[in-house]
Amino acid sequence: xxxxxxxxxxxxxxxxxxxxxxxxxxxxxxxxxxxxxxxxxxxxxxxxxxxxxxxxxxxxxxxxxxxxxxxxxxxxxxxxxxxxxxxxxxxxxxxxxxxxxxxxxxxxx
Amino acid sequence: xxxxxxxxxxxxxxxxxxxxxxxxxxxxxxxxxxxxxxxxxxxxxxxxxxxxxxxxxxxxxxxxxxxxxxxxxxxxxxxxxxxxxxxxxxxxxxxxxxxxxxxxxxxxxxxxxx
Lengths: 109, 114
Hints:
The structure holds two protein chains of two kinds. By secondary structure, chain A is mostly beta strands. Chain A has strands spanning 5-7, 10-14, 19-24, 32-38, 45-51, 56-59, 62-67, 72-77, 86-93, 97-99, 103-108.
């Protein structure tokens, strides 16, 4: 089955700096890679996703890159704000969803 | 107009009891899921149903029994609750059978076993 590894487990940045979270996956059949944000006490919410036929996708301050050859994908958040503080999950999916272990992002004002 | 709604939001009960959590989605999705999120925040899939049929059953004790009366509902019944069952349980839904569509999560049910 798929194995999704996510790093780092915690990330602390100063407001205005960039944050990068990286994930690797093992199953070459995976073709869908979503990212979820979970605020404290809330449900995970989709923030951006990418499919295997593209290498990069951007939505305002967030972007995701995918390297299918190396089997890794990353989430980039620019100009971080305190409200970006949350746990972020990557996932890789072919026929089944496999979530990474999460990254707790803390943006210090 | 909540898309995926689950009840109750909080459930506090004693070891050995039996309890149920209900989930309903109004998105017209074909597939529904139950996830368990422990204190370390790992999101672990438990079950997946597509059009009322079980398609994923991860290594979950048989004290957990999902039931899907129709494709808009997926309920979770837990027998003989144990301390280790304390967690937040999330229901989710997605379109289609393959896993290449976004999953929409409910607000979670926080289960605490005394």
